[in-house]
Write a structure and sequence with these properties.
This protein is α/β, with parallel strands linked by helices. It has two domains: about 280 residues, Rossmann fold (3-Layer(aba) Sandwich), CATH 3.40.50; about 170 residues, Adenine-n6-DNA-methyltransferase TaqI, Chain A, domain 2, CATH 3.90.220. It has a nine-stranded mixed sheet, sandwiched between helices. Strand 8 and strand 9 form a beta hairpin. Helix 3 packs across helix 4. The chain binds S-adenosylmethionine. S-adenosylmethionine binds next to helix 4 and strand 2. S-adenosylmethionine (SAM) binds next to helix 4 and strand 2.
Length: about 500
């Protein structure tokens, strides 16, 4: 445990008050789009301490925060630098509102503020005094919040500045991290608080390679996801600490877990092992002995359908009657896991799940004119989704915008998300109805070889389902991605790697 934090100094008290105003001025959607989740004060100080400890005591402090917000990290620097003079401090901020707060808060300090997008700024001239200490909590902006033009600009910039190819699925935080290297003095220290998925996901593979080639990676710390640092953002975080100089050949990286300054687990890993590993988190935790068949050999696994707007497209029996919706324009839909009390769903004669309050997915590709003429109630219902739903990411790419992906029912579905410490983390549902599933589930469609076995012996499916539900929790959580607050998500590929015994 850390010793209790001293009471905040006056500038930090003012910063916290300004932060509260700034957070209240933006709704959740806007904060997500800008990746605006301020670093909690105690963590900000811990990050700055980690940076200062890695910086040689005689090195000048030239600080940079490429996405400074109201300045939680700068404020922590003012507290932690003590007697060490701060030769320079620079902050970049895209959001004019956050920038305004920072300007007011830090007007009396040497902090220089640059308005704008860090990823669009030209890197400083190498002759200029570059940063010796970057401490950053970059915006966690997922790729679907980035427009195609924005991605193209980032791609070109990443290629010229780092020589690597940017994945279109990359979150913006990877761009800030990679582009910041050109702002660093040789030997300068970087401390980055970023989503821990950077250790695993394919889109960060090039970033992981650069972290092993261009810098000396000192620490890879995983925050304990059960103690979420960002309650409302639900992202579990990692902290990277590195020095801006190529590593010695036999360099070892310290992997830690828990509190960054008092980790509960520590492990030294040679960079040669990391270069060979495709996913760092997985390679570093002991894998259960493989036994049985990977599910990907038995099933085609896909996320359930993303409707693009459940309010509009998921209908109750009463709505189906009110809209006079013909049977061919709807398909039964499983209720979400929290409303599904059973793991075995039987079928009604019409194919709907034999459950109270069945739901239907509207599945209509008829043109608007036909609807207006032949099904006016449905047409009017759809109009209530213009433009809120129709201009959403999924709907605006569909023709017509209210059409849905065609998908057949799957005899087994698995919940997509789970919370740690809740008994069985993921549930497998045996689905004997014609219902399809939304993207809160993964759908498991038997591959031809398994279909043949099931046709010869229908009991196979039931036994498989029982075996899946009997899997130890770790068999699934080991493959899953973990987010803040102990939230696990299992992507199709990850479920495909889970093995089951098929006797
Ligand atoms: C996760 S917050 C961190 C703020 C602050 N450094 C802290 O630790 O509390 C990220 C900040 O980056 C800003 N931001 C988003 N995109 C940016 C960009 N492209 N360039 C610079 N800042 C950006 C957001 O407005 C937000 O203030």
């Amino acid at each position: 445990m850390n010793p209790p934090e001293p009471p905040p100094p006056p500038w930090e008290r003012r910063r916290q008050a300004a932060q509260a105003e700034l957070d209240a001025a933006r709704d959740g959607e806007a904060r997500n789009r800008l990746g605006q989740f301020a670093t909690p004060p105690a963590l900000a100080r811990a990050l700055v301490r980690l940076g200062l400890q890695s910086l040689p005591p005689t090195a000048p402090i030239r600080f940079l925060d490429p996405s400074i917000g109201a300045g939680a990290l700068y404020s922590a620097l003012l507290s932690e630098a003590g007697e060490r003079p701060i030769q320079d401090a620079l902050g970049v901020e895209l959001d004019p509102l956050a920038l305004g707060y920072a300007q007011t808060l830090w007007a009396e300090t040497p902090l220089r503020l640059i308005p704008g997008d860090f990823t669009a700024l030209p890197p400083p001239n190498p002759a200029e005094a570059a940063a010796t200490l970057i401490v950053a909590n970059p915006p966690y902006v997922r790729h679907h919040h980035l427009s195609a033009e924005h991605k193209a600009r980032l791609k070109a910039r990443i290629l010229t500045q780092t020589g690597t190819r940017r994945s279109g699925l990359s979150g913006l935080y990877v761009d800030l991290l990679l582009l910041s290297l050109d702002w660093m003095a040789p030997g300068g220290v970087g401390v980055w608080l970023i989503p821990s998925e950077v250790l695993d996901v394919g889109y960060a593979a090039a970033a992981r390679r650069l972290l092993l080639e261009r810098v000396t990676l000192r620490r890879v710390h995983r925050m304990d996801p059960a103690a979420s640092q960002f309650g409302d953002a639900l992202v579990s975080s990692a902290v990277l600490v590195f020095e801006h100089q190529p590593p010695p050949a036999d360099h070892h990286v310290t992997f830690t877990f828990g509190d960054p300054e008092h980790p509960t687990q520590t492990r030294l890993v040679p960079i040669a092992a990391l270069r060979a590993a495709s996913r760092w988190r997985r390679e570093l935790s002991p894998a259960p002995a493989p036994e049985g068949v990977p599910l990907a050999e038995l099933f085609t696994i896909r996320r359930g359908v993303a409707t693009g707007g459940n309010r509009l497209f998921v209908l109750s029996d009463a709505q189906v009657s009110a809209l006079r919706l013909p049977a061919e324009l709807r398909v039964p839909l499983l209720p979400p896991p929290r409303l599904l009390q059973t793991d075995r769903v039987e079928s009604r004669p019409d194919g709907a799940p034999d459950l109270p309050n069945p739901r239907w997915l509207l599945r209509c590709e008829l043109p608007e004119e036909t609807l207006a003429e032949r099904l006016p109630a449905l047409w009017a219902h759809l109009q209530t989704g213009v433009p809120s739903v129709s201009s959403g990411y999924l709907c605006r790419h569909r023709r017509p915008w209210y059409s849905q992906e065609r998908r057949g029912p799957a005899p087994i579905v698995c919940t997509y998300m789970a919370r740690a410490g809740q008994g069985r983390p993921f549930r497998f549902i045996l689905n004997r109805s014609q219902a399809i599933a939304a993207n809160v589930y993964l759908m498991l469609h038997p591959k031809p070889a398994l279909s043949e076995r099931i046709a010869a012996d229908p009991g196979v499916l039931e036994r498989l389902w029982a075996a899946l539900n009997a899997l130890p929790a770790e068999a699934l959580t080991h493959e899953a991605r973990v987010y803040g607050g102990g939230l696990y998500k299992l992507e199709p590929k990850e479920l495909g790697a889970v093995r089951v015994r098929l006797d």
